[in-house]
């Protein structure tokens, strides 16, 4: 059977499965819709969190980015996993005990202030929208490459599927679909990795294969070989970075803290029964995420070595079929500058003749390694599962922000449960349409803005929530001014160095040598400091708020999540 | 008399809560110190020097940055779960 037939079969089967689950787990109340009724088991919640977290970027792009960045790529690996330690130890159990539906709920109640709630809603909306546009684009790319449909048609098919189960099932539908999507995506990621690991090193475990010797009888370690190839072509050693230690440190910290502050991840912990379950499900989530995140750097090494071996100094006319296929998508291009008919892939920009998009390293990896057709089709189904699951989780945050945090808590407090459910569904529909629009007409700044989303979450939510739990006397004046200063500082730095506003600037002008991607950590520290300074000059919070804080520190009597 | 009795109960309850919280925060400090050492320490600040040590094909600093730190993160959360479950039992906050 051809790759295309296999792809239709696998994608069709998985989509049918998602829709089946959606029908089986329809939401009957706002509680079902926002927190899946509050009775999700820790393992199921761990799987759903993992699928929610691992987006098209983790599945399709990350291994490719690391391939080209080498050691510098470690910031994503540590940043996007280390954040879960912060989440599990500092946030999840207490927020579960607090027992509300959304993050703005916590900020609004803990800081006894509508302003704080609205600031939080705005942050949640900005973060979620920038994210979801990227996911829709990912769906489009997978469709266009593997099913030869137009990218826009692909986005629309994706929209309809997500709309169906997010709107019908809410958090309940999303949770159980995400459980299925986790299984699909992890299987799809691991199968090619294991195949290639065996091919190259004879070791079936990619995490070990990465550090093993090559299969070709030379006895050379794979990583040494890749370091050698890289320096030969004029690049840095693969295991050595080119970024400064300060910048690596700052970016890793910003990504970790940003991860812990992302609303669509935090809300997942509202869906379990007890505080104990919230802790445990954070552990399961990270374990399940770590399977992919420890395999990805191995895939990067395999793919990079394979790529250099296949293309470097070879005749263009002798390139395999996949090379031509990917040239057609525009993700790969060859420009024979010195007209010798051979491919020169080197660090020197004026001599380099090959341009490769990051995404190819995962998408084309099975083809480069000559794996069977069904494995290639599996990667397509996995990429779709990753993109759809994350999109659905984000849509839920958007719809809850609108229907719960704005309509119910600010504009129309006495709205009935049934009416609120319909507002939530309406908001989800509108959000899907907007996300689809951005997927079809992606604004050029999407990549820049996704980094901004982490910076924003780090600079705003994380300090406000941590102080809210660990600093009983923190008051609304301190928290609000901290959040505002953090966000504004972050926005200023991003727009200055990314878009050239406020006179722009070059990397030489970076403050403390920290890139915009890593600046979230500085903005976060500023938030903490401002909050504590302002606190010294303003009245302490009311007694009943201090009692709430004492209460969330004790795990027993969590009860069920409520919106009231 | 009843009034005084409730007051004593209250302060007993509060004492228990703050003792529990203190132990909790102590665990957090220890676990987060390890979290910092494996990632920011071994994977970033001391990466250069650790790279001199090689285990199989891996330079140690590089291994911590791309593999080791992640394994330790997973272990840390499960250790935390165990410690807290025990602590909850000790203070009878478990359910």
Short descriptors:
heterodimer; A: 564 residues; mainly alpha; Sodium/glucose cotransporter; 23 helices; 71% helix; globular; B: 95 residues; 4% strand
Summed up:
The complex is a heterodimer of chains A (564) and B (95). In chain A, 71% of the residues lie in helices and 1% in strands. Chain A is mainly α and 564 residues long.
Q: How many individual domains of chain B?
A: 1
How would you classify the helix and strand content of chain A by structural class? mainly alpha
- The residue ranges of chain A in which pLDDT falls below 50 over 5 or more consecutive positions are none
Based on the coordinates given, report the CATH architecture of chain A. Answer: Up-down Bundle
Domains of chain A, number: 1
Rg calc of chain B? 21 Å
Q: Gyration radius of chain A, to the nearest Å?
A: 24 Å
- The coarse overall form of chain B would be elongated
The neighbouring-strand order within the major sheet of chain A is: 1-2
- Quickly name the level 1 CATH class of chain A: Mainly Alpha
Query: How do the helices and strands follow one another from N- to C-terminus of chain B?
Result: HHEEH
Note the main sheet of chain B.
2 strands, antiparallel
| CATH fold name of chain A | Sodium/glucose cotransporter
DSSP strand (E) fraction of chain A? under 5%
* Number of helical elements of chain A: 23
Proportion of strand residues of chain B: under 5%
Arithmetic mean of pLDDT of chain B: 89
- Fraction of residues of chain A in helices? over 70%
